[in-house]
């Protein structure tokens, strides 16, 4: 498998889902433009891709996975818009273009993020399969998983602790909390939601969850490294921001050498978690390899 080509192809499929579930209704043109500016800015679409892959390999209902996958990307995009605001990370570059508030102003950027978050919930709730006795409860559980991952005890909790820890003494426990919540929660959610939707048995669900948690933590640690060593042009976002802001990162707490060791450990954890599952694992294993070996 040419993984990067395959990921691009699947990202295009995710883009089609975003078109299918695009914001509709009596929307002010400027608001819709601001929402779509960030939503259509590209990216690897790793979250919807992972959800769709999980449902595919576990032989679940792909049609019910689609609104969940689209909603995940809307939630992720809203979080990026708000993260980039002057009151948060104060960044001017995202996915290779000016951030939302630079183009549309802070007030419209906040509302565009709010619009995407609520559009995500609307997309999920409008597609609840009320007449499907087999998958109704599973869909609701999957939807709840995504909602919790994005909320006050998930991603937002991590963002708050990230903000409160700026400039403070390095703390390993706080660092683990930030990474597992701020980034890890929304990367674990697509796989857990997919497994729930597929009515997976307990062993399969637990194995996929362990894989997802290792993957989510590895993704954020890799971002920590890329903020130091990454190429701004290839990344499409600013680098060196963590050190400037005094953020709590793995390299700050453990040093680069130990950070690379942690990445390697997480790769082994992710791949070993699913090695005994009787499912098609190639794409998941290659995803772990891709995330843990990013060097751009």
Q: Overall mean pLDDT score? A: 93
First-to-last CA distance: 21 Å
SSE string, helices as H and strands as E: HHHHEEHHHHHHHHHH
- Strand sequence of the main sheet, in spatial order? 1-2
Number of domains: 1
Rg measurement, Å? 18 Å
Please write the CATH class name. Answer: Mainly Alpha
The percent range for helix content is over 70%
By CATH, the superfamily comes out as Farnesyl Diphosphate Synthase
CATH architectural label: Orthogonal Bundle
How is the biggest beta sheet arranged? 2 strands, antiparallel
- Principal-axis shape equals globular
Overview of this protein structure:
This protein has helices spanning 3-20, 29-39, 46-57, 62-83, 100-104, 106-126, 136-150, 155-164, 172-197, 202-229, 232-235, 241-245, 250-274, 282-292; strands at residues 93-94, 97-98. With 296 residues, it is mainly alpha-helical. Strands 1-2 form a two-stranded antiparallel ribbon. Strand 1 (93-94) and strand 2 (97-98) form a beta hairpin. The longest helix has 28 residues, at 202-229. It is globular.
